[in-house]
Amino acid sequence: MSEVFNFCAGPAMLPKAVMVKAQEEFINWNSTGSSVMELSHRSSIYMAMAAQAETDLRELMAIPNNYKVLFCHGGGRGQFSAVPLNLLPQGKSADYIVNGSWSKAAATEAKNFGEINVINIRETHADGETSLTPSQNWALNEDAAYVHYCPNETVDGIEMNEIPETKGVPLVADMSSTILSHEIDVTKFGLIYAGAQKNIGPSGLTIVIVREDLLGNAQQATPCIMNYQTSANNDSMYNTPPTYAWYLAGLVFQWLKTLGGVKAIASINQQKAELLYQTIDNSDFYQNNIETKYRSKMNIPFWLKDESLNDTFLAQAEAQGLMALKGHRIVGGMRASIYNAMPIEGIQALVTFMKKFEQENK
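Above: the chain sequence. Below: its structure as tokens.
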């Protein structure tokens, strides 16, 4: 096995350059004689690193000054609770757009904290193809506290490329699997959140980007660690943050800047996705049932026409260093998660294997 390519949906692979640097600094960071994970989060050297990480993320995403950037605990699921606790006052409702597994889970959790209007936009065509209702046809409530959606559904391989028009209602996006993969206009959103373990760093860290005017309205029952205002007032250090994950995220931001930023990685991501989808579409052995304009560029599910070959496919793929290609248990089949850290060489290795496997098993 010459090289391993990890196609896991999360925790996902990290850039090799980042891992090498972290390895070099593991027991002696910045000539301190200690690992960064051993240092106080309130020490000047750690706080300087944390501030630089935020600065780099703001630069990469062009985050305006009237937005707070929070480094939080709890993952994406933690934000399923934190969002309504902070943004859904008594007497108001929130719209939840459901197009896959994660948006459905977010809506289910939010119902514990207030009135939720669920808008299912997933459609199935007569030929079995999966599609979405165009955003202009969504039955949104113009008086909603916010509109929540998930631009990229990792389980289902569905991505919405256009930003919905909500006519002034704050738009909340779960970008766990798509943040930093392509350029976005942050000003179109009231709040963006993302678990780190796909495009940012290791699990345990969650990024929240929230417009300042949405702070200070948390429900009374909101735990202090989930209160955005509390986190903002304390520079995300009200209690001990996930310090090592924050450090690694900072290294990923620096790595991304050396590549040319989000615009540059978006071009690479487009090439990777096109190569894999072309291989699937040019075959009568593999298939993908998502309408082309809604296909994810981060998570590409595919199925073998003969599913009795699934276990053989996975075993032979792993023997070639192509890891974690088994599809999510809900949908089955295969899934290649190809986040920013996946190099084009990983996709080339995968499609070479897929073509060879097809030839040998037709």
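The chain has two domains: 17-258, 261-361.
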